[in-house]
Amino acid sequence: MNRYKQRVTLAVAAVLLPFTVACGSEKGDSGAVGVQQPVTGIDWRVDGITVGGTTRPAPAPARLRIDEDGRAAGNLGCNHFSARATVHGDRITIGDLRTTRMACGEERMAFERALARTLTTGTLTAERDAAKLTLTDGDGDRVHLSCSASE
Fold this sequence. Notes:
This protein is α+β, with helices and mostly antiparallel strands. It has a single domain (3-147), classed as Lipocalin. The chain contains two helices and ten strands; from the N terminus they run αβββββββαβββ. The chain has helices spanning 3-23, 106-120, and strands at 44-51, 54-57, 63-66, 71-75, 80-88, 91-94, 98-99, 123-129, 132-136, 142-147. Strands 1-3-4-5-6-8-9-10 form an eight-stranded antiparallel beta barrel. The longest helix has 21 residues, at 3-23. The two termini are 28 Å apart. Residues 37-143 form the DUF306 domain. Residues 1-24 form the signal peptide. InterPro entries: DUF306_Meta_HslJ, HslJ-like_sf, Hsp_HslJ-like. This is META domain protein. Keywords: Signal.
């Protein structure tokens, strides 16, 4: 292997390794979030929501990120949002959302309203299994997330 190929290989490995570790590529124990399975500092893609027993897929832009400093931000499917968040073990509370005010089609707006309501109705219970995360509210409604493709 010539030196150029070695440098490119090492550079790619150096860039991709932190992302693999951040999302978790190993199958861990399902269940409550633990020290080995953090939820902060990860760009989560919203895959869908289950509200009242009905699961709906998320629009492509739907995202969530909670930083260690208590800032949450993302996209509800149409509008961007930010909020304060607290994480205590497997319990997450997201405060009032500050959002942009773009209008999208009714289906996306209905999804966005349901997602915003589920994220902010109280304390959420987090379950993480490898690269998947489920947030469940007190009514049993769930937000299904996975590590973003950029992770």
